[in-house]
C-alpha cells in the first residue's frame, strides 16, 4: 500500500517537473530561482503583499512566480497595471479556482469569483440594480444613519466611564448590521439564529477558508483534488466553514418562509428562480447562486469596510496633527450642536475626504486585487503572459511606490490637495477597488460606509490609546492597527 501511495504521488509530480522546467520559447517575465516540482512555493511566506515591493525592486514591475504547476504573474507598477486592467482587460477577466474559494462561494456561483460569462454578467447586473444603483443607495440611507446613531450612543457610555473600547468588534457589529439589514432584510439585534457579536467571527472564518491553501491550488486537476481528500484538507476547510454555511442557510430559510413581506436582492433572486423554473429559461438560478450572493454580501461588505475604518482611526491616532486638522474642519463646518449626523453632511467636507483618499492609498482592503486568470496569451511590458496564468495586481506596492508618491509610506492627506486623482478605476496609480470589467461593484456603497462611520466617530469623540505600555508601543508600529482604543468626549 505504501509503495502504491508513493507511486501515486511521485508519478504526477515527475510529469509536472518535466512540464514546468522544459525550455520555453516565450519571453517570460523575470523570476526568482525555482526548485524542482514546487517552483517558488517555498518563498510564499516572503512574498507577503507588504514585501512585494522588494520583488519589484529586484525583478521589475512584472515578475513571474511558479507555484507548483501554476504560473503567477505579479504586477507592481502603474503602467503594467494599466496594460492588464485596461488594454488587456478582456483577455484576463476570468478568475482562477482554489479549494477555499470554491467552498466559500458555492462552486463560484457568486459575483466576485465567478468565471467570466453569462452567469457572471446576469449576477452583476442584478446586484447593480438591486443593491448599488443610485436609487437603491439613497433608499438605504436611513438604515446607515440609524445604525451609526445607535453605535454612537453605545460608545458614549465608554467615553463617560473612560473605558477602553474594542473598536474592531464595535465596527464589525455596526457595519455587519448595516449590511445585513440592506442585503438580507435582517436586523441582527432581533435575529433569532445569530448574535450580533458573532458577525466578526463569521467573517473571519470565511476569510480563513478563502486564504487557506490546498494541494490542488498548486497542482490543479484530478490528482490535486485526490490529494486534498486523502490528506483531509478538503474536510478541514468544510468544517471551518460549516458555521458560516449554517448562518447562510438560516438567512435563506428566512427568505423562503411563506408570507414574507420585505423585498431585498435575495427575495428578487428567489422570485427569478421560480420564474426561470416555470418558463424553462436556459440560465437558471440554483440554491448555490442564492447562497453565493449571500456570501458575497457578507464577505465583501463587512470585513473590508470595518478594517478600513479601523485603520483610519489608527492612522489618525498616530498622526495627531492630521486628526486635529480633520476634526477642526468637521466641527467648524457642521457646528457643535448636532445630535445626529446625516449623509448629506459629507458634502460640506473637503479635507476629510482627502483623508479618506489617503487611507485607501495606504491601506487598501485588498492589498492584492482578486486574482485574474489569462483567457489567452498576451503581452505586458514586452513580456509574454501565457494562457491560464494567474495575475496578481499589487495595489499595496503601487500605492506606496516612491516613484509615484512623495514620502510614500507617510499618512499625509495634503498630497491630494491639488490633485485630481481618484479611486474610481481610471487612475492606475490608485486603484484600491480595481478597474475594468472586474472593478468592485460595491465601491460606492463601501465608500459611503467608510465615510459616514468615520465622520460619526470623529465628530462626537476624541481618540487615543489606553494608558498601557503595550498600547503605547503599538501605536508606533506601522504594520499593526489598534484593536483597543480610548474614546473620549470632546
UniProtKB/TrEMBL annotation:
Membrane spanning residue stretches: 442-462
Signal peptide: 1-26
One Pfam family this sequence matches: p450
Protein's membrane topology: Single-pass membrane protein
Keyword match Heme: yes
Principal subcellular localization: membrane
The keyword Transmembrane helix appears for this protein: yes
Origin superkingdom: Eukaryota
Subcellular localization(s) per the UniProt record: Membrane
Stored CDD domains: CYP71-like
Keywords, alphabetical: Heme, Iron, Membrane, Metal-binding, Monooxygenase, Oxidoreductase, Signal, Transmembrane, Transmembrane helix
Family to which the UniProt record says this protein belongs: Belongs to the cytochrome P450 family.
Protein name per the record: Bifunctional dihydrocamalexate synthase/camalexin synthase-like
Amino acid at each position: 500500500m505504501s509503495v502504491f501511495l508513493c507511486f501515486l504521488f511521485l508519478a504526477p509530480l515527475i510529469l509536472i517537473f518535466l512540464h514546468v522546467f522544459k525550455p520555453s520559447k516565450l519571453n517570460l517575465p523575470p523570476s526568482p530561482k525555482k526548485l524542482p516540482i514546487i517552483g517558488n512555493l517555498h518563498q510564499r511566506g516572503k512574498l507577503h503583499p507588504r514585501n512585494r515591493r522588494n520583488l519589484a525592486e529586484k525583478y521589475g514591475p512584472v515578475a513571474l512566480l511558479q507555484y507548483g504547476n501554476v504560473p503567477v504573474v505579479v504586477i507592481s507598477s502603474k503602467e503594467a497595471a494599466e496594460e492588464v486592467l485596461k488594454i488587456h482587460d478582456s483577455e484576463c477577466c476570468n478568475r482562477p479556482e482554489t479549494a477555499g474559494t470554491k467552498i466559500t462561494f458555492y462552486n463560484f456561483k457568486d459575483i466576485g469569483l465567478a468565471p467570466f460569462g453569462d452567469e457572471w454578467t446576469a449576477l452583476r447586473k442584478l446586484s447593480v440594480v438591486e443593491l448599488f444603483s443610485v436609487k437603491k443607495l439613497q433608499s438605504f440611507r436611513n438604515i446607515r444613519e440609524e445604525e451609526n446613531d445607535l453605535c454612537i450612543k453605545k460608545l458614549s457610555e465608554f467615553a463617560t466611564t473612560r473605558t477602553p473600547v474594542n473598536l474592531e468588534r464595535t465596527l464589525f457589529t455596526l457595519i455587519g448590521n448595516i449590511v445585513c439589514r440592506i442585503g438580507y432584510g435582517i436586523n441582527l439585534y432581533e435575529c433569532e439564529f445569530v448574535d450580533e457579536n458573532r458577525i466578526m467571527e463569521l467573517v473571519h472564518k470565511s476569510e480563513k477558508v478563502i486564504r487557506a491553501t490546498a494541494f490542488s491550488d498548486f497542482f490543479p486537476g484530478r490528482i490535486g483534488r485526490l490529494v486534498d481528500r486523502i490528506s483531509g484538507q478538503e474536510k478541514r476547510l468544510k468544517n471551518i466553514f460549516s458555521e458560516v454555511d449554517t448562518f447562510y442557510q438560516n438567512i435563506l430559510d428566512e427568505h423562503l418562509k411563506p408570507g414574507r413581506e420585505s423585498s431585498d436582492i435575495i427575495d428578487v433572486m428567489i422570485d427569478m428562480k421560480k420564474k426561470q423554473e416555470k418558463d424553462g429559461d436556459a440560465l437558471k438560478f440554483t440554491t448555490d447562486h442564492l447562497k453565493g450572493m449571500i456570501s458575497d454580501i457578507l464577505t465583501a461588505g463587512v470585513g473590508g469596510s470595518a478594517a478600513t475604518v479601523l485603520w483610519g482611526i489608527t492612522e489618525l491616532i498616530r498622526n495627531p496633527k492630521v486628526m486635529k486638522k480633520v476634526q477642526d474642519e468637521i466641527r467648524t463646518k457642521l457646528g457643535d450642536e448636532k445630535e445626529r449626523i446625516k449623509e448629506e453632511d459629507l458634502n460640506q467636507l473637503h479635507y476629510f475626504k482627502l483623508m479618506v483618499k489617503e487611507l485607501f492609498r495606504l491601506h487598501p482592503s485588498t492589498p492584492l486585487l482578486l486574482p485574474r486568470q489569462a483567457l489567452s496569451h498576451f503581452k505586458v511590458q514586452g513580456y509574454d503572459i501565457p494562457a491560464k496564468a494567474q495575475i496578481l495586481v499589487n495595489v499595496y506596492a503601487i500605492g506606496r511606490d516612491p516613484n509615484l508618491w512623495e514620502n510614500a509610506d507617510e499618512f499625509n492627506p495634503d498630497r491630494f490637495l491639488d490633485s485630481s486623482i481618484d479611486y474610481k478605476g481610471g487612475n492606475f496609480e490608485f486603484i484600491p477597488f480595481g478597474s475594468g470589467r472586474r472593478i468592485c461593484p460595491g465601491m460606492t456603497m463601501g465608500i459611503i460606509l467608510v465615510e459616514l462611520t468615520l465622520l460619526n466617530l470623529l465628530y462626537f469623540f476624541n481618540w487615543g490609546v489606553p494608558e498601557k505600555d503595550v498600547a503605547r508601543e503599538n501605536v508606533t508600529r506601522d504594520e499593526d492597527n489598534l484593536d483597543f482604543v480610548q474614546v473620549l468626549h470632546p
